[in-house]
Each structure stands twice: as C-alpha cells, then as structure tokens.
Amino acid sequence: MTFADKTILVTGAGRGLGKALVDEALSRGAKRVYAGTRQPLTHPDERVTPLTLDVTDAVQIAAAAETVGSLDILINNAGIYGYEEVADRAALERQLDVNLFGPYAVIQALLPRLVESQGAIVNVLSLAAVAALPISPAYSISKAAAFSLTQSLRATLAGHGVDVHAVLPGPVDTDMVRDLDIPKTSPQSVARAIFDGLAKGEEEIFPDPFSQSLADSWNTGAVKALERQNAGLVP
Ligand SMILES: NC(=O)c1ccc[n+]([C@@H]2O[C@H](COP(=O)([O-])OP(=O)(O)OC[C@H]3O[C@@H](n4cnc5c(N)ncnc54)[C@H](OP(=O)(O)O)[C@@H]3O)[C@@H](O)[C@H]2O)c1
User: Fold this and answer.
1) Closest Cα to atom 1 of ligand 1
2) What is the CATH classification number for the domain harbouring 74?
3) Cβ(123) to ligand 1 under 6 A?
4) Which residues contact 13 (CB under 8 A, 6 or more apart)?
C-alpha cells in the first residue's frame, strides 16, 4: 500500500496517537486527511479537514459519512481506558460503547466508500486484546471484542476488496497512560510503524519494541493459522 494521493480518516485525531497519525499521513503525501475530533480542531496544513466526530454519536457519524466524498483508509483510533473492577457493569458498557460500538458504527457508515475505493480499515486495538490486563478488565474485554470484529471483517470483506488491519500496541507515551511509570514508545514512532506495517500489508501490526517481540510467534502461530482456516468458511 502507498499513501500518496490517498484520502484518510483518523478518529480521535486531536491528541495522542491520533494526532501523530494525522501528521504521519501528511508526511507520506496523503491528499486529504479527515481529522475526527470531539473538540474543534484547526490544523495548519490545508489538506486536513476537521470533522466533528464523537464515535458514540450516531448523528455525527452520519454527518461525517455525508461529508466524506471518497475514502481510501479509515483509521479507528479513538479510544478510552480505565481501571475498573470486573464487577462494574457500567464501566464495561462505557468501554464497549467507545472501543467496540464506536468503530463498529463508523465502519458501517463508511464501508460503501471503502468498497468503492478498494480501501482499508485500520483498527487501533491494544496488546490487551490478546492478553487481558487484569487491572483494566473492561478495557481488555472491549479491545478483545474489537479484535474479533476485526478478524470477522477481514474475512468477510476480503471478497469486496477491503483490507482490514489490527494494530496491537504496547504502552504509548500519551495522556492515556500518563500515570503509569513503565517504558513507553512515542506516539510519533508508533504512527510511523503503523504506516510502515500498512505499506507492507501486515494484517497485525505490532508498532513498538514491546509489541514487536510477539510478531514472529504471532504470524507463525496456531491462532493465526486457525483464523485463516476459519476464513475459509466465508462463501
Ligand atoms: N497509550 C497507550 O499506551 C495505548 C496502548 C495500546 C493501545 N492504545 C490505543 O491507542 C488509541 C489512541 O489512544 P491514545 O494513547 O492516543 O490515548 P489518548 O491520548 O487518551 O487519546 C484518546 C483519543 O480518543 C478520543 N476519544 C475518546 N473518546 C472518544 C469518543 N467517544 N469519540 C471520539 N473520540 C474519542 C480522545 O478525544 P478527546 O480529546 O475529545 O478526549 C482522544 O483524541 C486508543 O484506541 C487506545 O486504546 C493506546
């Protein structure tokens, strides 16, 4: 995949990894970058079109789909994190609303554009999707569910010419984990690695040194083999 002259939409684009993804898309020659944010955004590059987009707001999602004339790459980056008890159902519902049903709804709304362009969906998940963080069970459940959605879409959209990628980062140095005193990778470096992974056509992108240590065993492992076998069930 190349990015020159592509139209790219990034959700959660106002700060953190989303902001870095917008800048990386621009530096790789994107023709237009739709920056979905909840707060008003201004950007010095005229190729950036701000979009008011709370991924839990059906009206805003429908309006965004109207605004976006054509689209090559949808990057579902918006997300929330939290430390909750596993018994806290309200917290689980909050996490699922943003981290699962958010990208689900945005994908449904923009899928016709991506089929037209034979484009790609990029879901920014987390290593917590494959190994739960027991300090954040609701987050982990939401990311695991979004990973399962990613695998199902990958298999079912392959015949429609749309590629579906999962990004599985370890800790990234953003507001989300500001209070965690652990090694983190800069959002700029993670954004670069995500675009490098897309350029190479990687289905799972491990965009930092921590997650990269899983890449080889993931790609040759039993779970990936089973995913490929299951994909054969799609008529
Ligand atoms: N940081 C990490 O260690 C880490 C590790 C693995 C995966 N990730 C994933 O990376 C992605 C980006 O996270 P980050 O690290 O950049 O975190 P962040 O700095 O906290 O940024 C989160 C972004 O998501 C947006 N957002 C939250 N709820 C939203 C909603 N309902 N609708 C639209 N946008 C919403 C926020 O917008 P506002 O500015 O309006 O709040 C913000 O732009 C997330 O999916 C996260 O799960 C992060």
Assistant:
1) 172
2) 3.40.50.720
3) no
4) 19, 21, 22, 35, 36, 37, 41, 77
Cα 209 from Cα 82, distance rounded (Å): 23
> How do the residues of the chain divide into helix, strand and coil, expressed in percent and rounded to 5?
50, 15, 40
Cβ-count burial of 214 within 10 angstroms (0-12 exposed, 13-18 middle, 19+ buried)? middle
Ligand 1 midpoint to CA 176 (Å): 7
**Domain total in the chain:** 1
Assigned domain for 2 exists? no
Exposed/middle/buried for residue 177 (C-beta within 10 Å: 0-12, 13-18, 19+): middle
Interatomic CA distance for residues 63 and 150, integer angstroms: 24
How much is the pTM?
A: 0.98
Would the CB of 56 count as within 6 Å of ligand 1?
yes
Residue 9 C-alpha to ligand 1 middle, in angstroms?
Answer: 15
Query: Which residue has a Cα nearest atom 2 of ligand 1?
Result: 172
Element spanning 217, H or E: helix 215-219
In which domain, by residue range, is 220 found?
7-231
pLDDT tens readout for residues 123-161: 999 999 999 999 999 999 999 999 999 999 999 999 999
* 139 counts as catalytic: yes
Angle between helices 187-199 and 16-27 in degrees, nearest 10: 50
